[in-house]
Amino acid sequence: MLILIAGPYRSGTGDDAPKMKENLTRLERPSYALFRAGHIPIIGEWVALPVWNAGGGKCVGDDLYNEVFHPVAGRLLQLCDAVLRLPGASKGADNDVRIAEERGIPVYYRLEDVPGCAGADIPLDR
User: Is the pTM here over 0.85, yes or no?
Assistant: First the structure.
């Protein structure tokens, strides 16, 4: 399955770049386990960041940022087979879950619930 990993990226960071990088690292944490289980993990920021940069993005939250970031996830969800929702407050991730549920796409809240990932020992809450 193509699985969108959704969780906090910008939320709670005050737009502090090191904190956003920590959040991206947290989002990436389950990607190898998903891959080993035969899935393709995808994170919206993996697509949105280079698109935003190529478009001339200068400041987190600028008009181009808003034009790119949330729509990327919506477009990815047209292709995804499932969502893995990581813990933490995030309007964007909550929106991803809403879209997935509207489209009948499964949403997993624990890595071990994803097919093939039972026994994966990767905490998602830190």
Answer: yes
